[in-house]
Amino acid sequence: MSGADLPGSGPAVPVLQPGVGAIPGDHYLRATPETVLWGRLPCAVDAAVLEIGSGESVTFDTVSHEGILDDQGKDPRAYFTSHGVPSEHILDDAIEIAASVARDPFADGPHVVVGPVRVRGAHPGDLLKITVETLAPRVPYGVISNRHGKGALVGELPRGEHNVSVFAAVAERDGVLHGTLPVTEGGEPAVAFPLSPFLGTMGVAVAGDERPHSVPPGTHGGNIDINLLVEGTTLFLPVQVEGALAYVGDPHFAQGDGEVALTALEASLRATLRFEVIPADAARTAFGEVTGPLVRTPEYLVPTGMDPDLDAAMRACVRSALSLLGARWGMDEHLAYAYLSAATDFDISQVVDIVSGVHARIREADFAGVPSVEPQPLASATAPLDGDVA
Asked: Which CATH number characterizes residue 330's domain?
């Protein structure tokens, strides 16, 4: 039995090579040497690889960094076949990126990001609304790593080895896709946990001419690693440059809050996202001043706080939540503070990305009887595009 197959069957999910399978977006952006950055994020001087109108969707082929990094041999075919993956189940774009995209392993981050995408009508001060429409696994396997002495237990784990990467096959159990692990090294995959795919990195370009490192998140979004951002959710980001210059990457199949070992179950996804511009005045009317990533799920509004110090990130998140409650629902500060203490969970997004993250889950149903305004997007542009980058 191969590491990514079930007994007597094919792969648990179809392998989505570039151009293969459903592509539901208005536009399609493949991961190629011309459309990705490896280890760095776009800045204001980067040229867009695709231009779209507000309200349009893009299907991205994202590529996980796991299996292509230097400590894994920088050869995904050799790495994954050593874990029993058939050669035809290894993504062609991962092989091409590993072989031909430049990355400094001592100065750059690990993440492969696709973009940037210019959204017409997006100006600094606006919000870019990114709705996650579909997230399809591209392969039936992934990897969880603890490397370079990083993670929540620095100096304790990994023991005796500099880098530990754990292969995890995907299996279907009772109609639900699960990641699987053995209890002991080399054993049968008896442990199973449900997949909950999301993109760890969604962001907008920063001002200036210096590309940020891909690891620390910030006001631009980037590697925020908030596992609530599954299908049907939305991320709002403050636009920092003309056209927003949005990008995505760091695909995950599953992640626990904290991401304590350093990485989640990292694996490639085909992601379809819809981009809408919320003009600055409409954004302030709906949410007040949004200075960092704001998540919205069908149940929660989720302000964030970030800082290299986890305690400071927690305080920043509380301040963001107080500001949101005051701006959106007119709640007095002392009453908002009391509400957060009684009714809101503050979760640790991650503690392993140089800048730690905390996010608050504010139930919108609690405010059903309080008037509020919805953020109204810019009307979609109707000018035809010259064509898509694929």
From this structure: 3.10.28.20
Element (H, E) at 96: helix 92-100
- State the sign of the Cα–Cα–Cα–Cα dihedral 276, 272, 264, 97: negative
- What pLDDT, on the 0 to 100 scale, is given for residue 387? 43
Amino acid, res. 336? A
Asked whether 178 and 43 are in contact (CB, 8 A), the reply is no
Q: What is the pLDDT of residue 96?
A: 98
Intervals of the chain under pLDDT 70: 1-9, 380-390
Place of tokens 């964030």: 304
Phi-psi region of 386 (alpha: psi -120 to 50; beta: other; left: phi over 0): alpha
| Type of residue numbered 75 | D
Question: Is 195:179 a contact under the CB 8 Å cutoff?
Answer: yes
Give the DSSP per-residue string, 197-229: -EEEEEEEPBSSS-PPBSSS-BTTEEE---TT-
Which of 80, 50, 24, 61 is CA-nearest to residue 386?
50
190: amino acid identity, one letter = A
Question: What is the distance between the alpha carbons of residues 29 and 50, in angstroms, rounded to a whole number?
Answer: 8
Same domain membership, residue 257 and residue 204: yes
57 three-state secondary structure: strand
Output the CA angle 163-156-251, nearest 5 degrees.
45
Give dist(CA 329, CA 341) in Å, integer.
17
CA distance 331 to 306: 24
Same domain for 43 and 113?
A: yes
C-alpha closest to that of 179 among 191, 161, 162, 187: 191
Q: State how far the alpha carbon of 37 is from the alpha carbons of 15, 97, 116, 137, in Å.
A: 23, 10, 9, 21
DSSP-assigned beta bridge partners for residue 37: 113
DSSP 240: -
> How high is the pLDDT of residue 160?
81
pLDDT at 388: 55
CB 56 within 8 A of CB 244: no
pLDDT value, residue 380: 64
Where do we find the tokens 């493949």?
Answer: 30
Question: Residues for the chain: how many in total?
Answer: 390
pTM score above 0.85: yes
Domain ranges, residue 204: 27-141+195-281
Nearest partner of 364 among 328, 311, 313, judged by Cα: 328
The answer on 137 and 43 residing in a single domain is: yes
